[in-house]
Specification:
- This protein is α/β, with parallel strands linked by helices.
- It has one domain (2-141): 5'-nuclease (Rossmann fold, 3-Layer(aba) Sandwich), CATH 3.40.50.1010.
- Helices cover 52% and strands 12% of the residues.
- Helix 1 (7-14) crosses helix 3 and helix 5 crosses helix 6.
- The radius of gyration is 15 Å and the shape is globular.
């Protein structure tokens, strides 16, 4: 089964001193051992690079080249399906923003949800359950 990756999972897996690194890494290994694969959207990688290079968020931020290298690893991984927003996805994104009365802090998660929904991804790995439950589409897999 394919699991969509939220940025918080990617950050936790890649940053060894992240508070949730161990459970995220264990979940990654367990899913891979179980024959599961992952889906990643370009916007997830962009947000990942933005977060892990930000000294206000990371005690030891990655260099931009280090962050790009890690993002590239995920983008090229055999276990990763690349998914992209298309016109129907953007229409759904805008409709969800209106229907659920979501504000500016929910833009990235809503576009990601619409992208995964359009790709038929039903499972999402994230500790931000509340952000995605509103769409009534995903089974959320947490890693606390």
């Amino acid at each position: 089964m394919t699991h969509g990756i939220d940025t918080d999972f990617l950050v936790a897996v890649e940053i060894r001193d992240h508070p949730f690194h161990r459970p995220a890494d264990a979940l990654l290994e367990s899913l891979l051992a179980g024959g599961h694969d992952f889906a990643v959207a370009p916007q997830t990688l962009a947000e990942f690079v933005h977060i892990v290079t930000d000294s206000k968020r990371m005690p030891q931020p990655l260099t931009i080249s280090g962050a790009i290298s890690r993002a590239e690893h995920w983008w090229q991984a055999a276990e990763v399906q690349r998914v992209f927003p298309d016109g129907e996805c953007v229409t759904n994104f805008l409709e969800w923003l209106t229907r659920h009365q979501l504000g500016r802090k929910r833009l990235l998660d809503t576009l990601l949800a619409a992208t995964y929904q359009r790709a038929g991804i039903r499972r999402l790995v994230s500790n931000n359950e509340r952000d995605f439950r509103v769409f009534d589409w995903f089974a959320i897999v947490t890693f606390r």
